[in-house]
Design a protein that fits this description.
There is one protein chain. With 375 residues, the chain is of the alpha+beta class. It has a domain at 160-370. It has helices at 86-89, 95-98, 150-155, 160-183, 230-242, 257-265, 280-283, and strands spanning 33-34, 41-42, 104-108, 133-137, 140-149, 213-216, 228-229, 251-255, 288-289, 292-296, 315-322, 326-339, 345-358, 364-370. The strands form 4 sheets. A 7-stranded mixed beta sheet has the order 7-6-14-11-8-10-9. Strands 5-13-12 form a 3-stranded antiparallel beta sheet. The protein starts with 32 loop residues before the first strand and ends in a 5-residue tail after the last strand.
Length: 375
């Protein structure tokens, strides 16, 4: 900007007295001022070469953010999400029946037909098969509702609504997974949980609250009373399902991350245990163990959980089963954008209405385990 020059004192050529000089232009030898907003030191009269006019002062407004732009990175810090397993361990057989209307599905189960010995000439006993009715209720709802101001949208160089929508989808899955896994606690058939599990044997210890299974990678030497290896825990779950005649194809196990780490530390040397061509210790992959596909989740219930059923501090649940046992139905799952009526901005909101239920506890087993104490 050009400004008019106005001397502070009129100069009389006949009388040359001292002239007042603007303090901002007074030389200050050796001066190097540093602008807190501008990272580099400013040249002064004492620098080499000197600037003209001599002296320097803090620029107003500062260079940084005015003449030198501030750059916002177009790359966002990567965000990691907890793994979700609901889609892999449940069925959605009844979702289509409730997609458009209703809040409850009455599910008819297959009756058990009685087989009797036949005697020639004898009267035949007539049975009337009856099946139990299981109700799947759509009674859970979750939503999000965010607003992007018009000013922020115009000034932003990234698609904020798209980023928010992606994050909301992940958070929705995590929240649903956590709720469903917690609702499964204690829903397994009585013969598939507890210290006396086993429909036939009644001798399979799967742990109970207060007396969980202390799970380790390898049994200590000398052995510690009650300790079981992670492999033994999985085999016990498999035996409980075997005694219930659950199909071998489609079985799964969900275990916490620390239990999965024990598998990698265990004595699983034989490739047949994992169902892979190579040992799981060599390829580092948790594949199939004892006909179970293994899934790792940090969303499993763990203590303290107030019940009933309850989990004490340090206790974790490990589920096993078949997709036939757990059903899930989502009635509404939508995301929409609309203009806000209260301010200048765009609303991004989403809704999910769903229901889940263990419809056949015979196909679900659970073990209550505890993490080993660090050495």
């Amino acid at each position: 900007m050009l400004r008019p020059f106005v001397p502070l004192a009129k100069i009389n050529p006949a009388v040359m007295g001292p002239v007042e000089i603007d303090a901002g232009l007074a030389p200050n030898p050796g001066e190097i001022s540093k602008n807190t907003a501008f990272a580099f030191p400013l040249a002064g009269s004492g620098t080499t070469p000197p600037i003209f006019p001599t002296g320097s002062s803090q620029p107003a407004p500062p260079y940084s953010g005015t003449f030198i732009p501030e750059i916002w990175s177009g790359k966002l810090i990567e965000k990691f999400y907890a793994s979700t397993v609901l889609a892999a361990i449940s069925n959605t057989d009844y979702e289509g029946e409730i997609k458009n209307q209703g809040d409850k599905v009455h599910i008819r189960t297959k009756p058990t037909i009685t087989i009797r010995p036949y005697l020639a000439g004898g009267n035949l006993t007539v049975d009337r098969p009856a099946s139990n009715i299981v109700d799947l209720t759509i009674d859970q709802g979750l939503y999000f509702n965010e607003i992007l101001d018009d000013v922020m949208e115009i000034q932003s160089d990234i698609n904020l609504l798209g980023i928010w929508s992606d994050d909301a989808a992940q958070q929705m899955k995590i929240t649903v997974d956590t709720a469903v896994l917690l609702s499964m606690l204690g829903q397994a058939n009585a013969a598939n949980q507890g210290a006396t599990a086993g429909r036939i044997s009644g001798t399979i210890n799967l742990g109970v609250t207060g007396t969980p299974l202390p799970v380790v990678a390898v049994i200590a030497n000398p052995p510690v009373a009650g300790q079981v290896t992670i492999l033994q825990a999985i085999l016990r779950l498999g035996l409980a399902l075997d005694e219930q005649n659950i199909p071998e194809v489609g079985r799964w196990v969900v275990l916490p991350a620390w239990a999965a780490a024990l598998i990698k530390e265990s004595e699983l040397r034989q490739a047949y245990l994992s169902g892979d061509a190579t040992s799981i210790l060599r390829n580092g992959r948790l594949g199939v163990i004892d006909r179970f596909t293994l899934y790792v989740s940090n969303l499993l219930p763990h203590g303290p959980v107030t019940g009933p059923p309850a989990l004490a501090a340090g206790e974790w649940v490990m589920y096993a089963g078949h997709a036939h046992g757990l059903t899930f139905a989502s009635q509404i799952s939508k995301v929409e954008t609309l203009r806000s009526e209260f301010t200048f901005g765009t609303l991004l909101r989403g809704l999910q209405v769903y229901g889940s239920k263990v419809i056949d506890g015979i196909a679900i087993a659970q073990a209550i385990i505890s993490e080993p104490t660090p050495p």
